[in-house]
Amino acid sequence: MSDTMATEKKARRDALNESHVWQVYARRKFEEPLHEIGNVMADDVELAKVYARSIYDEFAWVEMVIVPRETIVHVIET
Amino acid sequence: MSTTTRRIDHAALFAVLSSLADNKQAVGRRYAYWCNGAPALEAAVAAAAMTQDELGHARTLYPLLDNFVQAEADLSQVEPETRTLHYSLAYLDRDFAGWADFVATNFLFDTALTTFFEAAQQSSYEPLRQRARKIVQEERIHEMHGEGWVRRLARAGGAVRATMAASLERLWNETLCWFGPNDDPIMQQLYREGIIDATPDELRARYLKKIMPTLQGLDIEVPVAFNASNKQWELTGALPWERWDAVGRRLG
After folding, report:
1. Predicted ipTM of the assembly
2. Residue B46 and residue B30: Cα distance in Å, rounded?
3. CATH number for the B11-251 domain, one of 3.30.470.10, 1.20.1250.20, 1.20.1260.10, 3.30.750.24?
């Protein structure tokens, strides 16, 4: 593979690399609190919503939210 | 399997249901290939979920064919396992060349089929009405996925954007033709009988209203212009009706 082709391939790959992590929270009953069930990577919020619904579909959740990881503020950190 | 109830004699409805079922089946099969080939794990899981949905939609539509007199000519054609007729788009005859073809099908054609199902939510034909409501509900997440990936690929720029634009262009005409010419006797009959609530031109207008904000926002060029006087998106070029196969509802 020529250097040009390799550079183009890397540029294509970099352009599609997801860099934002979203924490996924959900609950099965209204009387339960939301709890963290996992995370998804996506640079587009709508895609993040689709991914969260597709991946964490093991229960009939009554609520699911996603939070961008970079917005989380640590109060206590070890 | 044949039913003991009396079959309905309705060639137009039989033709459209055949096309809907075959297209859903073909879309599902093409999606299936990408369940482990998508650009990211998350996208692969979403592709698997959408594959299941599309094949599920086909599975609920095929049994309806058995309720028609038109099925009696060859009962093997009402079962997906024995059916040899394929009234799906020519675009779906071959494997997708890449992820951009998946996204184009998701964004353009699947949304076109959903536009039809939305027009059938108050259908006078109850079996279609029931299925249409469920399908429209499930397709909301597919639309979010299609729009999200069109944005993602278009904003990546360079060769990625060019490949996306080329995939959309290849599927464009055939998707818009699927609704039929405005004097299509099949769709017009469904409209007259309240099976759907729109003519082919009205379906196309509703469809353009759904997809154009995304395409316009990304500066993706398509032969459509916004008519400020009637506040509608309108095609600026003629569709290739000389290649329209009215039986297969596809371009030849």
Report:
1. 0.80
2. 14
3. 1.20.1260.10
